[in-house]
Design a protein that fits this description.
It is a single chain. This protein is of the alpha/beta class. Helix 3 runs antiparallel to helix 4. Strand 1, helix 5 and strand 2 form a beta-alpha-beta unit. The structure holds CO-5-methoxybenzimidazolylcobamide (B1M). CO-5-methoxybenzimidazolylcobamide (B1M) binds next to helix 3, helix 4, helix 5, strand 3 and strand 4.
Length: about 210
Amino acid sequence: MGLIEELKQAILTGDLRRAPELTERALGDGMSPLAIMELACTPAMLEVGDKFKKGEIYVPEMLVSAMAVKAVLKALEPALQSAPALFAASIVLGTVKGDLHDIGKNLVGFMLEGAGVKVIDLEVDVSPGTFVDAVRTHKPNFLGMSALLTTTMPYMQETILLLKEAGLREDVRVIVGGAPVTEEYARQIGADLYAPDAARAQEMLRALIS
Ligand code: B1M
């Protein structure tokens, strides 16, 4: 079995010891953090989601796989942050209210930090009011919202409306993402940017700032 396939299996089985170990080996072999995410983590988590949908696994199994991906991200962190800082900007980032999924959001945060963006991470279950307060306090260039549930996506729009009410909408560019979010949805709710993945998010912000 190849290294990437082994890593995928470690994630699928929630092996918290093997997952970071294999990640470090892959990095040592010259593989980029993004390739590791795209070839091992994302397919593994898609498979986990599929099995969950079919009733083949339950929340505890989904959770250990998520913990294994977090261990991979932790092992990738030094490599992601050693990328040259290309510009200075800041983003307030979080997963919306009612939503506890944070792997994608963390990945976006790491990728942006690696590109020299200061990330103010509000973590998960962030209410529209908390996002708006953070924009008022930190005056970031960007506000980034992540949602993984169709039931929590509407909080992105609520946050944008609240930003308008607070007179802060023109001060910040809003970027949204997460598995159920689409470009069209982003446009409908009045977001400025939509990124399908962390690499695109990094690319878009870099292009805008430079
Ligand atoms: Co949940 N879950 N989950 N889950 N979970 C999904 C999302 C689901 C699709 C699974 C399924 O049914 N197939 C489904 C949602 C269905 C729907 O809404 N239509 C689901 C469900 C139902 C639930 C619960 C309700 C289950 C229950 O309790 N009965 C529950 C809800 C809890 C809550 O949030 N309130 C729940 C719980 C959990 C766990 C806690 C067990 C765990 C999360 C642990 C954690 O994150 N710390 C979990 C997991 C792991 C998943 C799946 C399997 C994987 C998500 C993931 O981490 N993907 C997921 C299935 C799936 O997505 N296929 C599923 C890997 C990650 C790298 O990708 O987050 O998409 P992603 O991020 C991508 C892009 O989307 C993008 O960049 C990243 C890649 O580069 N991106 C952005 C993300 N945010 C961005 C922001 C940006 C830009 C790009 O700009 C700011």
